[in-house]
Design goal:
By secondary structure, this protein is an alpha/beta fold. 38% of the residues lie in helices and 15% in strands. It is built from twelve helices and twelve strands. Strands 3-4-5-8-9-10-11-12 form an eight-stranded parallel β-sheet. It has a two-stranded antiparallel sheet with strand order 1-2. Strands 6-7 form a two-stranded antiparallel sheet. Strand 6 and strand 7 form a beta hairpin. The longest helix is centred in the C-terminal third of the chain and has 20 residues.
Length: 332
Amino acid sequence: MKTRSLGNQGLTVPVIGLGCMGMTGFEDGNMYGPADEREAIATIHRSLELGGNFLDTADLYGPFKNEQLIAKAINGKRDKFIIATKFGWEIDDNNKVTWAINGKKEYVKKAVERSLRNLNTDYIDLYYMHRLDKNTPIEETVEAMSELVKEGKVGYLGLSEVSSETVIRAHAVHPITAVQSEYSLFERTVEERGVLDTLRELGIGFVAYSPLGRGFLSGQIRTIDDLPENDFRRAIPRFQGAHFYKNIELVKAIEAMAEEKKITSSQLALAWILSQGILPIPGTKRRKYLEQNIAATEVELSQADLSKLENIVPLGTDTGNPYDEFSMGLID
């Protein structure tokens, strides 16, 4: 697989990564249906065979179950993988998520040691702050993260779901390599708010999570009953009421275009992101879909193709919020 520089600090990654969140459950169930550890590990190994060695996880996922799964998958092959994990959602000493965001120096140090243990490694390639702690100056958090780089525990620093102002302040303390936010044909807030422009100006890479619109752009969701009963998407506006049916119509138009090109709607949606020099990290827990996603790296879109997609889903299209009200309030 082709590779690219993520930011200008020296990190080289494949052009598409693997989001691992859906491979394990959370303490209150699974976000995307039942987990299958054996297939998940096989998916990670297949990704490596195809050149996809960039894995994305977080201490929140489980909590800790996802990092522990990755530790099993990379055992004996650590040097072949690039691991990105995150901290910030506070997890107490009883391994319970408090649902507060903690970016204080002491917590940063506590969180990284815990992730190192769970990943069974002595270094993390890319360490993200998962959400901004609005009660702690970003400078304090990034200074603490910077110390981890000096100690050799972390290679590069990242932020997630932050504004241009926060990026600029953080980058002044220690070079930021990557910012991760939701981005897809269905979610372009970072583009509308000028965050992508800021990242380009500063030489910071952008990583797009949920590049398939939380599964909508796969074309596999036609009714709300296509989602498992405990699937968190049932509770978010994008999958409810009028938004749901409007989004289905958008997907049908994207599918029709994909069919003309003899590719899947997922591949078209990923190729659109790749054409912008952005790194998508589609999540999957099955080899079949992993192979389809990686094949999207070979799809080339013309300017006419890009214009057609822009006409189907113009910038500013309201597809519904990707989170509930509480979680939307935690985005910077």
